[in-house]
Amino acid sequence: MRIWLGNTEELLNTSEVDCTPFFLLKEVITADSIPVSVLSLSMPAKSLHKMLLAVGKGSGSFELWNCDISGRKFDKIGSFDAHYHAVTDLAWAFDGCSLYSCSQDNFVRCWILRGSSLHEVPFPSNTPRLRSSTDVPDIFISCMGLAVSPGNLVLVMVRNLDLELLDSMYQKKAQKAVVEFFWIGGQQQDLLSKASPLVDVVEFPAFPEKELAYWESNILWSLKQYEHLDKPLVLWDIIAALLAFKQTTSKFVEHVLLKWLLSSYIGYNVDLSAEKILPLVSIRLSKINSRKLHLLNIICRRVMLSELKADQVNSEVQNLEVSHGAEGEQVTMWTELLRCSERELRERLVGFGFSAFLSLKSHSTITASQPGYWYPVGLAQLEHWVALNHERVQDQLKVLSSEVGRHEKRLEYSEHEVAEECSYCSASVPFESPEVGFCRGAESDSGTGQSHRLPRCAVSMQVCPTTPLWFCICCNRWGSRLAPETLFSMSEYPLDFKSSTESSVLEVPSKPLCPFCGLLLQRRQPDFLLSASPV
Ligand SMILES: [Zn+2]
Ligand SMILES: [Zn+2]
């Protein structure tokens, strides 16, 4: 087995056939009688240039290698007799701390690597929700492959059925293999198992305290991974796990999420109570990077406010005072946090719109039509929004807004449409909310005209055309424009929008992302054509 090092830049640019941008780094395993069946590698984020390599063999054993890419050092950690038959798949998890192996012998095993020693640990025996009964008979003969979910909380296995034992009339034709989903969020990560006992979670008899503690530390670890911008926001396993726990012990979910807010959003110790922590996060939002705001919004909507429909959340986020009764106290607090966080992102977006327009005006070399550059649309709507929220928005936005307003009077900006029309009845649509517009209807003709409800673009706040381009699966907003790439990588609310847009020209994003959730937007299509939901 050989490891090759590739030069990606050369690979992308070269068009010549005889030019090979790869060179041999190391021949790890020389050919012998036992064939290599599978390999899996992991590049742990905690150590640069380090690579963990697992090589499965036809004999049922696998080898582990510790590779230092920059120093070209390859150390064999060891060879392990793991299975009776050929190893069919290997998967690293938890940043190279755990390894899962499966084999033709139908066994799936979990290993943890500490230093240079490997230990087998049992699979977590408890799952957060009782398994739904399926009509799949438990007659597997081998495991063909496995994969770990993006948040590392679920292990997916593909298993072969014993065709001899299947009912030949019906099952044999329909079933060849089965995909199994297995929770691994309760996976042990340390050998001493001295996981901190949970203080306030007591009433959960179905679950051993130790496994719950593993769940807690694994969920927190998993959420932390998504703070890195290069990890796409695909959170279905974290959300599914939290929702499953919420059904039986919502207290545990709140406990974990408050701990997460405390360590990632506040950074110093306060009492672990929602009344203390949520308002503290709210007032710190301008110092928090956009990615964390996106993560927060998704968790708010999909976990803490999951009983409410997205549209319902949106209308409550708009109206401040909504009472949920005594037991809805929690819902009110999390809605308030979501409202503040989305407003923070909205202000960043509006600020970009204004300052991009102003810098476009001052640099006549960059024209709005130049490809690759982001330019603002719907300035009139943005100004309207600032005017409507005059008491709440930061002063910088008001200054920018009035500056833009002065410019427009003298310069005809082509994309600037003040009055909006209903796409169904062509009545006028006044600006009342950034989310939705209601047309005036055919008032003048009959007096009781129908008013059309028109979604506004999440970015430009303009009324969307009848078939908007993009849809966010999480917040149910529509969009016909995309937000600039910079919005997603901002580290905090800028002190000066103008200098931040002038130093870095705003670029058109390479992927369509929701400005409020950071998730990949979807095209409007029938459900069966949509790709799997990221949340
Ligand atoms: Zn209308
Ligand atoms: Zn969204």
Automatic annotation (TrEMBL):
One of its GO terms (molecular function) is histone acetyltransferase activity. One of its GO terms (cellular component) is transcription factor TFIIIC complex. Pfam families: WD40. The keyword Cell inner membrane does not apply. Transmembrane segments: none annotated. WD repeats lie at residues 80-111. One of its GO terms (biological process) is transcription initiation at RNA polymerase III promoter. Signal peptide: none annotated. The keyword 4Fe-4S does not apply. Keywords: WD repeat. PANTHER family: GENERAL TRANSCRIPTION FACTOR 3C POLYPEPTIDE 4 (PTHR15496:SF2), GENERAL TRANSCRIPTION FACTOR 3C POLYPEPTIDE 4 FAMILY (PTHR15496). This is Transducin/WD40 repeat-like superfamily protein. The lineage of its organism: Eukaryota, Viridiplantae, Streptophyta, Embryophyta, Tracheophyta.
